[in-house]
Design a protein that fits this description.
This protein is of the alpha/beta class and about 130 residues long. The chain has four helices and five strands, in the order βαβαβααββ. Helix 2 (about 50-60) packs across helix 4.
Length: about 130
């Protein structure tokens, strides 16, 4: 049995990045001086003007705890996303591995990290 992870003390939560890699990089630079132990990201990494590949690489480099948002799920359900050259293999694997929710211990008890309403996908509606 593996030991339980240490409870989070100081964390930052970000969300709805929508491919904004330059802004994510600026936020990560600022957070590096704020005494934050862990970065949490609540999904919706895709569907923006910047680089999704770079966003995923930055989150990986910072060992962020990330969950899947509805935009991320929609992209994974789109057959076009799986065509060669659309996404890097690393980005596709990163997105596929994202859970819908994560329970993370904190000093005040468990934190449920999710996008929107957790496991309840009935609230996610794609407006076309």
């Amino acid at each position: 049995m593996s030991p339980s992870p240490a409870p989070l003390r100081r964390f930052a939560a970000i969300g709805d990045l929508h491919g904004e890699d330059l802004r994510l990089d600026a936020v990560l630079t600022w957070l590096s001086g704020q005494g934050v132990d862990t970065l949490l990201a609540v999904g919706d990494l895709v569907d923006g003007a910047g680089s999704l590949d770079r966003c995923c690489a930055l989150l990986t480099a910072h060992a962020a705890h990330v969950v899947r948002g509805n935009h991320d799920r929609w992209l994974l359900e789109d057959p076009f996303a799986h065509q060669p050259g659309f996404l890097t293999r690393e980005t596709l694997l990163f997105l596929r591995a994202l859970p819908v929710t994560r329970r993370i211990p904190t000093l005040r008890g468990d934190l449920l990290l999710c996008h929107g309403v957790g496991d309840n996908r009935s609230e996610e509606r794609r407006v076309g």
